[in-house]
Structure formats: structure tokens, C-alpha cells
Design a protein that fits this description.
CATH topology of the largest domain in chain A: Rossmann fold
Strand content of chain A: 15-25%
CATH superfamily of the largest domain in chain A: Response regulator
Helix content of chain A: 40-55%
Largest interface: A-B, 39 and 39 residues
Largest sheet of chain A: 6 strands, parallel
CATH architecture of the largest domain in chain A: 3-Layer(aba) Sandwich
Number of helices of chain A: 11
Order of helices and strands of chain A: HHHHEHEEHEEHEHEHEHEEHEE
Shape of chain A: elongated
Strand order of the largest sheet of chain A: 2-1-3-4-5-11
Oligomer: homodimer
Structural class of chain A: alpha/beta
Chain lengths: 311, 311
DNA sequence: GAGAAACCTGTTACCGGTAACATCGAGAAT
DNA sequence: ATTCTCGATGTTACCGGTAACAGGTTTCTC
């Protein structure tokens, strides 16, 4: 592996000049700068992360902490992880995965957290290194999807498609993302003078399926599900009861995890833009690391039209 | 963060003695050793990876390269990744994810590769740092599941359950894992004097579903699927045609990715023991890194009884 | 009981990089 | 012409850890 000394020697300058060309190119004369840059690309020099880490009192390593059950969220976990890694790699950082609540500070510069619950926020708020969470909570830098806007869009879609009864399948947990998804539905209903009808269930397609078997379904029903898993349960129940989807029952899920696979019909859904989320999380974390003060950000969900809504 | 110097100072010894207590404890007198160990745990000292990396001419970072389409294999990708990370973390390494064919050597000590195809092996064979692949190929250290044993078990199960016709749904690719899965089926068929019936399809539940709609199904059929996705398609087709599963049609998948979710009935399947696979991969890679010569390993698949086979 | 060997601990130098300071030459100011 | 300033580069020291060697005791050997 070629080191900064090799470059320095080859370019007949000191290591320090090479370092400057990389980190503060404006401090180096144009002539020497191009010389050195040429030698760098000629030798294929890449900075050694360990050396840089030691000199800068950094680790160039970020811990990604997954607090959700991995079985619950595999599909988007994998994608989020991939996008986070890519974004960090571009900045010379590695991503280390964890799935416990130790928040071990050794050899990491910051935390990216996914699936944090109320009970975690106290600890997260008092960590001595930067933290960015995926989700919403006052006091912690976060990136979140606009959940309310998502279900609002979904509900509007089903309203426009003339379904008479509009049902919301929510999750049986007390977390902001659930409350907000419900709020989006409520708002769309209220604006069009409809009575909301809300059921809370565990986030499981089988349970949703069974619940809807108990005479909750009828023709001309639109179902707004708080998650794709619930939406998938609704799809199965509809088909099982001989109700045509989307002609008699329309369904919109939330998350966008089943687009590529599995569903008997592809689910219309509110998709989480995972790449954008990952990039924003990394951007915020690195900004915090360089001492900037940052504010939480929201991303806009996108309605993906599948085969469970009309047209 | 407490450094080795802090420990040395507190324990009234040199840095070198502390280093020895950690890396070569047998070289230090019992008395001093316990002293130092006590100071270490008292101060909560943990080695700095960057310092260690620089001194040892290592990076303590491994690249995990995913060459499969992430959409194809999300579910087990997420789990494999988690187990790999855990195993490496125990040894002081981080795992860095990639999904391209660059095999960039900078800042990594070795590669773990998943989803490599024939065309990749030339490059992999000539990399100057250790590589362990998930799968089989002569010349490259690998960990693989015994695919043949898996389908052999699956086929035997369906034979024992008295299904008359036994169908194998294979994948339409020419890779060892496919050939071996087919071979396990063939062997079990041959040993019981049956005629194999094999169809090759793209690995997609919808395609399997449609294929089986064309009069390929009948009562008293056992289906051995080369993947869970094909198995899921078979399950849907059976149900759609009013064939009772498992009473009239028995189905066994392969991979174990749908155990926790999604299927209308849980799929009986040949499960890949991902934790064991991950641990073996890491163990082999680290052994190679310390100069030992290693040989590829196989892990034994386990039959998971779901609701698509009898009892 | 002297020399050798074994054992234990400390010292030095280095891994690759960068901050802080030192140096040097050229042009500006007076 | 002399000093001042500034821009460009080099030198030194250090980040945290470890290999290689040095030095000091103790134990063994005959």
C-alpha cells in the first residue's frame, strides 16, 4: 500500500505538502498542487484511515444501532443499511452495526439509531457524542418521514376513488409515527366530512387477516393501513372473502417494503425514500461532528401506485 | 477516552507492560499482570483500533461484498450481515458493506463475498488479501451449506408423507448451488425408484404461481422447491386451485427466509443456519489473516417443519 | 562462585497522518 | 535600502499502540 511518504518522495515535497494538497489545497501553490495530484493518482494513493484517525483524534467509524426487532423490519433495514454505508463511505467513514442498548462509545464517533422508543430517549439525549435518530423526538437530531402527510395522501387517494367506507388499520403502540399516521387519516376524513373508523392491531399480516375475517369487510371499502404488513393482511382477507381488489376493496399500505416481491398483487403504498433518508442522516451526523448546529429534517413520502387501488 | 498511557501511569508500569498484559499475558509476572488488569477494568480501558491498526500494519476492517441483487435476498442478507458483524466485532474488527465489483483494497484486511458468480472467481482468486466466499468454488476458501443434503432431506420427507408425484422446482441458472439442490432431489428419487420431474424457472413467486396454474398441479403431489420464493408460488397456486395444503399438496422450500412472516401458511423449508455460517466465515477469514492455511467448510441445513407438510 | 541462561521490564523507534510552529524568499511599505 | 508582511513550504512532535532491542535480576550450571 502506498503511503503519504511515498507520494511525498515521488513528488519531491514534504509529507506535509501532500497532506495539504488533500485537506487544504488552497494553501498550496497551483504548480505544486497539480504536480502532487498527478503523483497521487499515478500511484493510486488513498489515505490510510487509521493514520488519519490517530492524527485527528477521530475513529472514522459510526455505529448504526438497530433497536427494532430485525425480523420486523428486515426488508427496509437491509436497504437503509446499504444506503447509510454508501453515504458514509463517500466521506471516509465506516459503518458498524449493533443491536443492543449498550451505546458503547469506544471506537466510534457517533450513533445512527433506528427504532428508538420513548424509553430510550433519556439515554440518547445524554450521550457525549453526536446522535441522529430515524424517527421523531424533541431534543434529538433526527430524520423522519412526514408520516401525517403520507396517510393524508393515501386517504385522499381512496376518497377520490369513490370508496364509501374508509377504514384505518393502525398499530397498537403509542409512538409518534403511529399517532401521526393516524392523524393524516383523520385530517383527510375530517376535511371531507367523514367519520373516521379506526382499529388498532399488532403489526402482523396474519392478525390483520384474522381480524378482517370477522365481518369487518364489505364491498366498497377503502383500507388505509399504517404499515404494509397490515395492508397485506387486508389484501389477503379481501381476496379470501371473494372481494375483488381494487374494484370492490381498495388498499394502501405504508413503508414500501413489498414492492419487489411477495404480494399476490403489488400493494399500493406510501413509500419511505430510504436513500434520501440515509443521506440526510449521514449529512446531519457529520455536520454535528464538525461542530455545526443542525436541525432535524423531514422527508416527503411518495405514493407508489400498485394493483390494490384503481387504475 | 482512556489510553494505554493512562493505564500505564495509573499502574506504575510502562505502556509496553500494559500492551503485554493484553496481548501476551504469559510474558508478564502474575503480580503485575493482575495489578494491570485491575487498573484496566477500573478505568474501563479499551484498545484504540486506529492505534492498534497502525502499529500492526492492519486495518481491522473487513469488506462484505454483496454481489446478489439486494432485492432478491433482503431477508437473509439482513440476518447474515448482523451475524457477521457480531462475529467480527468480538474479534475487534469492523465490517464494511459494499455492493460493487471493484474489490478496492484500501483500508481493508480481507473480503467476505456473497453471491459471487462463475465470472467473478478469476478476480477473487487473484486478490492479494484473504477472501472467504459464501458458496462453493474450487480454489477459494468458502463456507457453504450442504445443498444436496438439504433437498435430499426435503425429498425424503415428502416421500415419507406418501405423496405420489414428486415435483422439483429448480432455478433457471447454472450455478453449483442450483445443481446441488437438484442433485439431492435426484438422489432421493433414484434411491426409491422414482422418476424425477424437474422444471426450471426464474426465482420469482409470481412466475412459479403462473407456471403451476397451467395444469401442472394435481392432488397427491409433493413439491420440492429450490427456493422459498418458488415454494411460496407453489403454495399460492395450490390454494388458488382449491388444493388443500398439506393434505393434497405438500411443499418444502429452501432457505428459511419466510419463517417469521408473510406466507399464508408457514412454509416447511430447509433452513440455512445463518449464524453458524457467519461465524464460520469469520473464523476462516481471520485464520487466513494470521497466516494459517485453511480449508473450506460446509454447514448442515436443518429441516424446519411448517404448515405445508403433514403433522 | 563465576558465567550463562532465563526471565522480566523498560526504552526506542516506527506505523501514517496532521497541527503547530519555524523558516525562507519575494514583494510592499516607508 | 531596510524593515515588514505574507504566502508557501518544511520541521517537529504527537495521536495510541507494538516490535525489537536493551538492561537488570534471578536462577541454573558445573
Amino acid at each position: 500500500m502506498v503511503s503519504i511518504s511515498d507520494v511525498a518522495h515521488e513528488a519531491h515535497v514534504s509529507k506535509m505538502t501532500v497532506s495539504r494538497v488533500i485537506n487544504h489545497p488552497e494553501q498550496v501553490s497551483a504548480e505544486i498542487r497539480t504536480d502532487v495530484q498527478q503523483v497521487i493518482s499515478q500511484l493510486g494513493y488513498v489515505q490510510n484511515r487509521a493514520g488519519k484517525a490517530l492524527a485527528n483524534n477521530r475513529h472514522y467509524n459510526i455505529a448504526f444501532i438497530l433497536l427494532d426487532d430485525i425480523n420486523e423490519i428486515e426488508p427496509y433495514y437491509a436497504h437503509l443499511l446499504m444506503h447509510l454505508t454508501d453515504a458514509l463511505r463517500n466521506e471516509g467513514y465506516t459503518l458498524e452495526m449493533r443491536h443492543d442498548r449498550n451505546f458503547d462509545l469506544t471506537n466510534v464517533d457517533g450513533f445512527l439509531v433506528c427504532g428508538a422508543r420513548h424509553s430510550d430517549f433519556d439515554i440518547l439525549n445524554n450521550l457525549p457524542i453526536p446522535v441522529v435518530i430515524y424517527g421523531t423526538e424533541a431534543g434529538i437530531t433526527s430524520v423522519d418521514i412526514d408520516n401525517k402527510a403520507g396517510t393524508y395522501l393515501a386517504t385522499q387517494l381512496l376518497i377520490n376513488q369513490q370508496y364509501q367506507r374508509l377504514l384505518f388499520l393502525g398499530m397498537a403502540i403509542d409512538e409518534p409515527f403511529e399517532t401521526n399516521r393516524e392523524a393524516g387519516y383523520r385530517q383527510a376524513m375530517q376535511e371531507t366530512g367523514r367519520e373516521p373508523e379506526i382499529h388498532h392491531l399488532p403489526n402482523n399480516e396474519q392478525i390483520a387477516f384474522q381480524f378482517l375475517q370477522n365481518s369487518h369487510l364489505s364491498a366498497n371499502t377503502g383500507i388505509i393501513a399504517a404499515t404494509d404488513r397490515l395492508g397485506l393482511g387486508a389484501l389477503r382477507a379481501s381476496r379470501h372473502q371473494g372481494l375483488a381488489v381494487p374494484d370492490e376493496v381498495g388498499i394502501v399500505g405504508f413503508d414500501g417494503i413489498y414492492i419487489h416481491q411477495l404480494a399476490e398483487q403489488s400493494l399500493t403504498t406510501v413509500q419511505q425514500p430510504l436513500k434520501e433518508i440515509a443521506e440526510k442522516m449521514v449529512q446531519l451526523l457529520l455536520a454535528e461532528l464538525s461542530g455545526e448546529s443542525v436541525t432535524s429534517e423531514y422527508v416527503v413520502p411518495e405514493l407508489i401506485h400498485g394493483e390494490t387501488t384503481i387504475k
